[in-house]
Amino acid sequence: MDPAKQHHRHPAEYYTDPENSIGYLARILFRSFSRLLEQGTLTHEVSAGQWRFLRQLWRGDGITQRELSARVSMREPTTVVAVKGLEKAGLITRKKTRDDRRKTFIYLTERGRELELKLAPFNAEIHELATRGMTDEEVETLQQLMRRAIDNLAEANAQLAAETDASA
Q: Considering the domain boundaries, does residue 91 fall inside one?
């Protein structure tokens, strides 16, 4: 990504105002959402950080730590710490297979599974708060635009990772 060859929607100075930065706005939204969500999840002794991992495991467990890292878009060392905490809390178990002793697979415990329906209402409530005053179409458009921005950045990150690996 050569900045000199890039066409920009606005001059660089435009983005010195945080209110014009999508990254800044997304961060503020994320932090506000997480803070409010955690008020509810903590009543079941689940932090907002643990929630992110549990939510992906509810979609399908029996995956490796590497797969879980990819699903939550976190670095593997962060996932290792989170998995240890989830295991200590009795929400997951880790198992190695006979086929490949290097790979550890993560499974929800019964308690971990039961939390899905207990915690989902907190998430729904925060979504309602965040989208108050928006039409269903506006919410759908917001989701589509956010997904497109995520895909654009994922593509750039994949290219960066490939370039980094090639130079190593």
A: yes
Please answer whether residues 106 and 123 qualify as being in contact, where contact means their C-beta atoms are separated by less than 8 angstroms: no
pTM: 0.76
Relative to beta strand 104-108, strand 92-96 is antiparallel
Number of structural domains (the chain) is 1
Read off the pLDDT of residues 17-63 as tens digits, 9 standing for 90 and up.
889 899 999 999 999 999 999 999 999 999 988 999 999 999 999 99
In a domain, 70, yes or no: yes
| Helical ranges in the chain per DSSP H | 22-41, 48-59, 65-72, 76-88, 110-130, 136-167
111 occurs within a structural domain = yes
Residue 108 within a domain: yes
